[in-house]
Design brief:
Blueprint lengths: L7 E5 L3 H13 L3 E5 L2 H5 L10 E4 L12 H9 L5 E3 L19 E2 L5 H14 L7 E5 L2 E4 L4 E4 L2 E4 L2 H12 L7 H6 L7 H8 L1 H11 L8 E5 L5 E5 L8 E4 L9 E4 L6
Parallel strand pairs: 1-2, 1-3, 3-4, 4-5, 9-13
Antiparallel strand pairs: 6-7, 6-12, 7-8, 8-9, 10-11
């Protein structure tokens, strides 16, 4: 396999947020994720698991309902030759290095999409895998995952972690109604300070995003508030939920004006 070839990456994660975020990151970096929702699904791969190029464990229990150590069982199946990353997005009670870590496994505890993107990128770089950072582009809107910047027209908007993850979820779910409960489910639990305030006041945060990203139809996208309290991001042209991937520039164009959103200090 050439250095530039797409890698087959196993993804084992029990929560929808963890599964979806890891899948999105791997696809954005040019690799091919195979997603499993529990240990039994993964064990069903049998000897084929050893042909994976890497394995990423997201939110998995230390011990599953059958009393099996999940990370150790996954490690036994793939063998020592398959690099493993454990990157739970749920807030751990102890250091991830002390929780269900198999020999040779790399561990990290990202909280938001940009954190996970950097963790996986660093892991792939450490393996010598070619993984060029790419922008996630929906028509006029380009998301820079490592910097939490959204570029559109002649502006670059630097978002906080909560705003960035909400905006991404709206664009990935374009044209579909998204319940407020779903958006909260795709944000981390147990936050404090400003991040907690922005998650707890989701409607206000979304109203601010609508203004900051000009999602009023003027740029082809309209963020609607639905009667049941949900939201829908609608495009004036046919547009699926998957972004196009554009190689990230080495530096932002100097002509762009950078705007930083205000984060509520509460």
């Amino acid at each position: 396999m050439s250095r530039a070839a797409a890698r087959r990456a196993g993804v084992l994660a029990y929560s929808p947020r963890s599964r979806e975020f890891i899948r999105r990151v791997l696809r954005a970096l040019g690799h091919s994720p195979l997603v499993f929702t529990n240990l039994d699904e993964f064990l069903a791969m049998g000897p084929d698991a050893a042909t994976l190029d890497l394995l990423v464990l997201g939110d998995v229990p230390d011990i599953d309902s059958q009393g099996r150590p999940v990370a150790a069982c996954a490690h036994d199946l793939v063998g020592a030759a398959v690099p493993m990353l454990r990157a739970p997005m749920q807030q751990p009670g102890r250091s991830v290095r002390q929780r269900g870590m198999a020999p040779g496994m790399v561990g990290a505890s990202p909280r938001y999409f940009s954190d996970l993107y950097r963790v996986i990128l660093a892991f792939l770089d450490s393996l010598g895998f070619d993984s060029t950072p790419r922008l996630l582009v929906w028509e006029r809107y380009a998301f820079h995952p490592t910097d939490r910047i959204v570029a559109f027209n002649d502006e670059e908007l630097k978002l906080d972690a909560v705003d960035f993850d909400i905006a991404l979820e709206l664009f990935y779910g374009a044209a579909r109604p998204l319940a407020g409960s779903w958006l909260r489910r795709m944000l981390p639990a147990g936050e404090h300070g400003a991040n907690w305030h922005r998650i707890d006041n989701l409607a206000c945060t979304i109203d601010e995003l609508r203004v900051a990203l000009a999602l009023d139809g003027s740029n082809g996208w309209t963020l609607e508030t639905l009667p049941d309290g949900g939201y829908r991001l609608a495009s004036g042209s046919p547009q699926g939920g998957q972004p196009s991937l554009v190689r990230a520039p080495l530096a932002a164009a100097p002509k762009r004006r950078r705007v930083v959103t205000m984060t509520d200090p509460g």
